[in-house]
Amino acid sequence: MTDIKDFTSQYGLVEKIDAFGYLDALKANPDAPRKHGKIVLVTADTPLMASRGEGKTTTTIALIDALNKRGIDAAAVLRQPSMGITAAGSKGGASGGGKASLTHPELIDWGLTGEMAAIAAAQNLLVSFAEKAIDEGRLDDILVPRVSEVPSRSLRAITVDAGKNNVAEKVVLTPTCELMQIVCLSRSMDEIGRRVAAMIAGTKDGKAVTFGEFIDLWRITDMLAGAVMPAKTETVNGSPVYVHGGPFANVSIGIPTLASVQMACSLHDVVIVEAGYGADAGAQKWLDIACREYGAQWPSAAIVVTRASTWRDDPELAWRYPFHVDRLEKLDIPTFPLVNLWDGEDDQIPALRDTAKELEFRDPIIGNLYRDGGEALAPQLDQFVDALVGGSMPAAPHSHKGMPLVENVRWIAEQAYGVPAERVVLKDGFASSLTEANELCMSAGVSLDDMAVVAVKSPATMTDNDRAGEDERTVTLKKVEVHAGAGLVHVNLTTSLTTPMPKIV
Amino acid sequence: MTDIKDFTSQYGLVEKIDAFGYLDALKANPDAPRKHGKIVLVTADTPLMASRGEGKTTTTIALIDALNKRGIDAAAVLRQPSMGITAAGSKGGASGGGKASLTHPELIDWGLTGEMAAIAAAQNLLVSFAEKAIDEGRLDDILVPRVSEVPSRSLRAITVDAGKNNVAEKVVLTPTCELMQIVCLSRSMDEIGRRVAAMIAGTKDGKAVTFGEFIDLWRITDMLAGAVMPAKTETVNGSPVYVHGGPFANVSIGIPTLASVQMACSLHDVVIVEAGYGADAGAQKWLDIACREYGAQWPSAAIVVTRASTWRDDPELAWRYPFHVDRLEKLDIPTFPLVNLWDGEDDQIPALRDTAKELEFRDPIIGNLYRDGGEALAPQLDQFVDALVGGSMPAAPHSHKGMPLVENVRWIAEQAYGVPAERVVLKDGFASSLTEANELCMSAGVSLDDMAVVAVKSPATMTDNDRAGEDERTVTLKKVEVHAGAGLVHVNLTTSLTTPMPKIV
């Protein structure tokens, strides 16, 4: 029994799919029919302002509409927008717009069917269990943060148990927490349980204590039963869209769940995976974490979205867009520039094409996707479709497991930000933070160097000084934080905020 | 079009119903067929320990199974359990148990389809908007608390914006917040919008500022779109059960949503409404707030659940159970004692019946409902069914609108706790708290005396000194808090906690 219908349930206006069950069924029935969809990575230029999107989701929606119009069975896998920062704020819903829209964007914008909320509750429950463990003398301190789905600047630094023990805490946005990472990276509920058990709750006498040592795992996995099921919706033109996993590749991994992508590849010929903010955040994480370390499929093509204004208006930063396109091409991923126009910019198309030619890009895809949707793209996709259909099904490059952390970060800085190893600077305090993290891992019986590196950075800058000349740019490493359950080590770079908790704008 | 099916959508294993839409349709089609179900209030003895339920939900489930077995179309309306304190803790799921169970208790226990989470997010978003209003100089302070669905003792008192402005806050459990009260009391999304607009966000220059003065209401109502739809599930024996609205009649109103109850009355002949903790909390609030002030239907019968142990084991507190039964009888509500046995207590049935006789109770209904479910009740329901079927459809007594707050509280103390007006004591600070609340209301253009009183109290005590003689018991009023949007004024009594934020036990 490997019919996806048997794994699909109606939830109001969307469907939800038992992706774990479906993937298990495919595994158990190797001869059952399935597709082997190719992955297209939609990423973007580094935005000038993090609060104004380049239009990755709008592009993704227009693209599947255009491909389906050309007779290609294409689906998209989107990340669930962070309700607070997008829908509540001025940025918009992170669910496309105009003709490149979903049928029920309000559902996606305002919490879907409670996936993010369940993850928030489960992460906060872990903190409460840790608090109970402190009361019982099993733990001296807590290393997991509470989360909030609603942004609030005053939650960046809080003191809990005020007037008594006055414990300093920070609150992070739900999509950035370790439990969200675990949901994104796991292929089964068992794996989620194992990873939650391996999460470091805090320390006792200086040694790591994992949640597996004191909680009932079933409480957490029961809580996540609905959250692990991708939602299925569609574009206003009827193209299939799966929504699962949280955003924010600046401060976390920011990728859709691997299970939802794998499921989509079994059901469709082309699967668009959206990952951002810019390529330095989203694409880097999809390639170097999801593919290289967690077995996700390497992209058969990529699209790098920019605005004409992002590409054009700040000459000092104009190096970034071609850098991203070149980097992906060098990885043998056919990479297509896509310029998402604002109203009134149509007359700039010839100049944009000229610039693309000068830069030796593939022919750029250009359109006002909000206004025209997939229709603006369909006639421009010949080269893209040729590259995709004709291309191979590439394997991901080898893992970096075992590579010392600093070497790994230097490699990322060189590959993804164009800053060579010698200009990766260790800030005062970084060495001690690294030692501490190493000792914490050792006491938990795991190795820091076996973890995938999550570069925590500003969404709008690639280096310490993007406006400096190429030979002067540096990257500074500030501190290290271990997410042992997710198998990730966070390294805070450069201009990153220490707490990813925005305010409503 | 008044077929409930047209207002019902599948959400995984449960259904959700557009109750507002259905009630509107009935109103617009006065000749359309509908039922006029009678309400049975299931409440309980004051528990010896708040962490151990008497079994209201188990009773409610067993009761509808027993009534349906007798050919009576009976449904239950349950409150959605508070995920953290019940499912995560030792208390259990607040969704029945054993033979008196729901088909999918795990769904109800762990957040249903995100209703509570959406209300939490919306209430927290209101706080974030208020914070933005402070930044913009429109507000000097914030009077609405943040909420958490997960209990955590260290959230009882927190300091936010730590290291900068160091603002003291408390965090309350989601079900106790004003937005949950608004969802429970409103009959339409318009009413919710109006009530959110009337919520007092904080003050500017000493005067109340309401949310209507600075937020986009649609963001809050959009967020609540799914939360206002009751869920429909069923017992393992197939009896219909609606789940909607939050618990905790000790620190809030603790009633199911009025819309879900009204809807159920249009669909079934008998509707069981569950309200607790004890009758001094849940029944008092259903009668004096829901019915008297908000137009809910007055019960045609009541059942007061106790444990043999609660009734029997502490002679000093044994006055409470007959007090509750007598009080309801005096209100012309036929009231049936029900003793929910633990294992090994069957041999006590004759003694329990004797005691009931001495107290001049109606014949008590006695059974081990966990073990035997509705089968234990069905043969004992003759008197109950006679009273219910033969009884009238009573109107709620007149409103207390305009009654001065202290007089209103004294009336409640006398009626619901057996403490006469002269032994209702105003604690130091109460008078100034009342004056402050009055001034706040006046500056918002509303009158404190027009609001329904919510007595905030311990779930396990009725007075300052339940163990004292009847003539010595007192009730102390501590402070006043206004929920202008919900139209409620909270008065903290006696032993109430100042912050209803438990820890995980």
UniProtKB/TrEMBL annotation, chains A, B:
* Keyword line: ATP-binding, Ligase, Nucleotide-binding, One-carbon metabolism
Could you list the residue ranges forming a coiled coil in this record?
Answer: none
Which Pfam family, any one, appears in the UniProt record? FTHFS
Q: Which InterPro entries match?
A: Formate_THF_ligase, Formate_THF_ligase_CS, P-loop_NTPase
Give the metabolic or biological pathway.
One-carbon metabolism; tetrahydrofolate interconversion
Q: Which GO terms describe its molecular function?
A: ATP binding; formate-tetrahydrofolate ligase activity
Q: What is the superkingdom listed in this entry's lineage? A: Bacteria
Enzyme Commission number, as recorded:
6.3.4.3
> Which biological process terms from the Gene Ontology are attached to this UniProt entry?
tetrahydrofolate interconversion
Instruction: Return the broad EC class.
Output: ligase
* Record protein name field: formate--tetrahydrofolate ligase
